Amino acid sequence: MTELPEWITWLFLFFTGACIGSFLNVCIFRIPQGKSVVSPPSACPSCGHRLEWWENIPVVSYLLLGAKCKNCKKEISIQYPLIELINGLFYMLIWVKFGYNPATLIYCLFFSALLVVTVIDLRHYIIPDVISLPGIPAGVAASFLLPGITWFDSVAGAVLGGGILFLVAWGYYFFTGREGMGGGDIKLLAMIGAFLGWKAVPAVIFFSALAGSVVGIITIIFNKKDRHFAVPYGPFLAGAAILYLFYGREVINWYLDILTVQA
Ligand SMILES: [Zn+2]
């Protein structure tokens, strides 16, 4: 077999990631409305104008159209090319990290699912069950193809991830009588645990809670009028999961070093 020049692989991965990113935009837009993500075909959200193929090329069409709908001239959200760019970029990075391996394919899909969850949670404060719930058995099934993780690690990850957040949510409700953490976060961490294994769960909780607290405190300082303004936790869980995916071993060593310092 002749080796393909590396730039073709890069380009192929970026373009595939960007095309899937285009589909993720449809998911982000339609899932919270309970609509089908496969039909009808893509249309302008303002005027319903059906997109021609050349109006639907990831990133390129946004630039060609000058960020405006061809029909109604209404501005197209920057979210569309941004999601396509981010998804394309991470498909390349995941390939660089994991190479020609089933792990690359699995982690690309895992990344895309987390990207959709993140944007939907930021916009609507919900984590859709249609992603997190099937994600749990999907993660367990993936463990049979992934290197360095057994099916037991995966099942234990789902139970530990879901279980810890369930206890946190229950404890918060028990002591304050208010609902703090949503059920969506519980199911999301169960899915993350299924894909990354139980060893990832403490790290993901640690880093998401750390980043969430920093952002929460900043929000309270700059948002004095509205103290109950909620910061969605899903994006931090997703971000910590991706951090762990790329730097898992380093991350674990780092916090073990801190815990055992001068021991
Ligand atoms: Zn339009």
**What does the radius of gyration come to?**
20 Å
User: What's the shape?
Assistant: globular
Strand segment tally: 0
Count of discrete alpha- or pi-helical segments spanning 4 or more residues? 9
In this entry the ligands are:
zinc ion
Counting helices, strands and paired strands, the structural category is mainly alpha
Helix and strand pattern: HHHHHHHHH
In angstroms, what separates the terminal alpha carbons? 54 Å
Mean pLDDT, all residues: 90
Q: What is the count of structural domains? A: 2
For the sheet with most strands, the description reads: none
Instruction: Report helical residue fraction.
Output: 55-70%
In quaternary terms, these chains amount to single chain
Description of the structure:
With 263 residues, the chain is mostly helical. It folds into two domains: 1-100, no CATH class; 125-263, no CATH class. Helices cover 67% and strands 0% of the residues. It has nine helices and no strands. The chain has helices at 6-30, 60-64, 79-98, 102-124, 129-142, 151-176, 183-196, 200-222, 234-259. The chain is globular.
Keywords:
263 residues, binds zinc ion, mainly alpha
Task: Produce the secondary structure layout.
Elements lengths: L5 H25 L29 H5 L14 H20 L3 H23 L4 H14 L8 H26 L6 H14 L3 H23 L11 H26 L4
Helix pairs in contact: 1-3, 1-4, 3-4, 4-5, 4-9, 5-6, 5-7, 6-7, 7-9, 8-9
Bound molecules: zinc ion (ZN).
